[in-house]
Amino acid sequence: MEPELVMSDKDLKLWQKLDQLLEEELKIFEKLKNAKTMEEENEYCERLEKPIKESLKVLREDRKRGIKKA
User: Which of 11, 15, 35, 66 could form a disulfide with 7 if both were Cys (CB 3.0 to 4.6 A apart)?
Assistant: First the structure.
């Protein structure tokens, strides 16, 4: 029998935020793949930068919390 996964509210919020950011990144990436012009490609690349940086921030915060718990 597998142990039940228990997350704190803070952990759950971090993972929900990460999920939301990754969904946003995927939508922008799909638009980037279908871009018709170089200008569109540049616009979508610029729009991808913010959610990617935010995702990294969330992952790093979660990692720091995990290190402190251990």
Answer: 11
Domain count for the chain, please give it.
Answer: 1
What are the structure tokens assigned to 40, written together? 């569109």
> What is the pTM (predicted TM-score) of this model?
0.73
CB atoms within 10 A of CB 17: 16
Tokens of 35: 């871009």
Q: What is the pLDDT of residues 5-59, one digit of tens each?
A: 677 888 888 889 999 999 999 999 999 999 999 999 999 999 999 999 999 998 8
Q: Is residue 3 part of a domain?
A: no
